[in-house]
Every structure is written in C-alpha cells, then in structure tokens.
What does this fold into?
Amino acid sequence: MATVDRMGWTRLVWEYLGQYETLSKSDIVGPSAVRSSERLQLLVLLYVFVPAWLMGVPTVLMGISFAFLQRAVQTDLDALGRRVGWLQTANIVGSMIGAMLTGLVLLDWLGSAGTLRLLVCCGAVFLALYFQTRPRNTDVWRRASAFGAIGLLVLLMPSAQTMWARLHAAGTEAVVQREDGSGLSLLKQTGGDHTIVYVNGIGQSVLPYGGLHTVLGALPALLHPAPAAVAVIGLGSGDTTFGIGGRAETKTIDSIEIVAPQLETLARMDAHRPYAGLRMLLDDHRIRHWFTDGRAFIRKGQRRYDIIEADALRPTSAYAGNLYSVEYFELVRDHLNPGGLAVTWAPTPRVVNSIVTAFPHALLFDDLAIGSSTPIVFDRTAIRERMASAFTRDYYTRGGVDLELLLRPFLAAEPRVISPAHDRRMLTDVNRDLFPKDEFAVPQTADPPISSPP
It folds into this structure.
C-alpha cells in the first residue's frame, strides 16, 4: 500500500487507480485489449496478481486450518460424525456473524482501516491460545517475537486517510473521505480548481457544477410548467440536485442517496475549498436529504412528484438494473402527479427502450430521456421565458453556471418525440428486474432505432 506509487512494476496500477473511468468489457475482450500490451499487463495485475496477493494466502491458510481443527477435536471415534457436523456448523455460523458484525457495526464504528487493525489484533488472541497448548518452558523470546511482530504490523498499517488516498492515486492532503457500512465517499482535488467525486472507488461527478449533470436537472425543471415537488435519486457531487432547483415554483426537493457519508464529505469540502454551487446546495432549505435506497423510497412513500429523476449509477455497476429497468420506470410512472416527468440519464439504447416501454409519451435527447403519461410539450419559447425569470437567472448565475451556454445545444436540437402511436412491440431488448442486461454487459441486439412516428 505504501509503495504502490514507488515500485516500477506497479506503475500501471497506480495510473489506473487515478483514472475517472473504470475498465470496460471492451478492455478485456475487445480488439483494443489485443492491440495494447500495457492494457494486457494491467488486466493480469488487477485480476491475477492483486487478488492472489490480497486473498490467496489467507484463503489457503483458512483451508489448511480446517484440517488442523479436525485433528484437534477428533479424539473419540464414536463421536466422529457429530463433531464434524458441529465444526461445520461453527464455521458457517461464525462466517455469518462475522459478515454481519463487519457490515452492520465495525465499518460504521472503525471504518475499513480500523476493521483491518482489529482483525490483525484478533490474530494475537489465537496466538495466545496456541501458546497455552505448549509446555510452559517454551522459549519466552519466541513468544515475545511473535506478539511483537503482530504489534509492529498493527503500527505499520495505514490510517484510513492514507489508505484511501493511495487507492485513489492521490496524496493524503488532496482527498476528503468518509465511510460507513453504506459505502465510501471520497473527493479528490486535482491540480487545478476541479474536484473529482468518487463513490465506492468509481468516478461519478466533478466539481464545480456546469456539465451534463447540471443539464439533467435544469432541462426537465424548465420543461415542466410548475415543478413544485421533485425527487432526485443519487446525490453524488450534488450537481443534478442543484440543477433541478432553479425554479421559484419548486418548493420541495427530495435528495435520495444510498451512501450516507456523501453529504458529509461535500460539507467538509465546502469548508476546505468552496464552490458557489455547492454552497447554495448545502444552504438550500427546500432540499430534504434521505439516505436510503432510492427505488425503495419511491415505492414505500405516499408522496407524488412533478419530477422524479435518477442520476446515480453507471449502467454496468452492481444493482444498476434497479434504476434502469422497465419495472422501475413503471414504478416512477405510478408516483407522478398528472403531467409529471420521469427523467433518466440515457447511457445506452437499452435504457431508452426501457423508458419508452413504460411511458406512452417520451422526449429523447442524446444523453437524456424524459417520459410522461401525458404529452410533453417542448416549447422553446416557454423554456427561454422561464430561463429569463429573475429567480432562475440569479440562481444559476450565483452558482457559477452559464445556463444559456449550457442548454444551447439542447434547445437547438430536435428531440425525438415518442407518442402512443409508436409500435412498442419492436422494443424487445430492454432491461428487466429479473434480467438487467446492461448491468450484466449483455451485447445490444439489433432492435430498430427509436424514431418519431411519421
């Protein structure tokens, strides 16, 4: 951990850890993997040597330990089967309790670094039990050396700040991090004035605001005549939540984030390196922060919204299917007010197919899809009038966002307009709860491209 940026053979890993993007399927099986010898080396390092180094030895030792445990407990042939059963039961119960204790308690209390230290300290307990079985005249120096080695290992283990900074290819002074049982939030400052937002090690967004995430919030907010109540699944940098708050008509914004430390790291970053938009987000009294699963929040809640938006996960991330399936969009449809809009980032054609399957009406842009149960009026004049209102103009200006420049390509474009007349029987390649194809990186089939009906 401490030398990953200093050892020559780890250079590729160090560079990869500092990237915003993750490895894609094409990096592993595509033609680019054949063309690049460095990419092949990186794959071998990440998927062979690193797992073998981190998990290989402990796994082998755990397997060997079972044979020694059997030897220790099998002292009576008449109880042979019973003791095998009890030993297996103890192993299963111990694994379950250990996983629950770590996920529900230790990560909240101690974090990953502290939990690792505790596990090493637990090794001293087993060492003490071992020495209890040895003759009392066992070499004292041998005992002292064994316990001393464990103590030294605990002292040499990195702090949480150092560990997570190294694993994101940064210096400890350049990161703000916080973790608990729900996940890891880390903000990494770059050489300029930008800060990269990572969630569970994956790049999600960038500060300051003013990119696609802002558009994902601002465009639907300006498209809806009066979005009084809105919900955004996925906090990230807060960019989309900030973007959706630019209307005076908006009274409540429910921000739903599953990784609870995300808001704390943003607040800590604001105290260290202020960004105008982030400060407005943190001070906005209309925003109510909820730390839970976004889909479950919508399903269990009794509220209906004018806009429900999800901008939370890459399509191939674990559990991303929960926010890109036909069933998810149907759930959202049932929790919208009349004329309400469902909004999603549209990273794949399959996501577009899924939202069009669930909604009779849709507007499709390059990276943005909007669905509704009623016709969606894309009135550029009305949108520009709302952009020119005093509240909206002042809101985005104070946040450091040039709204006119940001939305110009979208207002100049002709979105695809989907109506009930569109033949949805063609849309066979969609995400389903029981088969989230994008999450499993299933190749896209040749469904006819979605287009406006003649």
Notes: The chain has a mean pLDDT of 90. Residues 37-73 form the longest helix (37 residues).
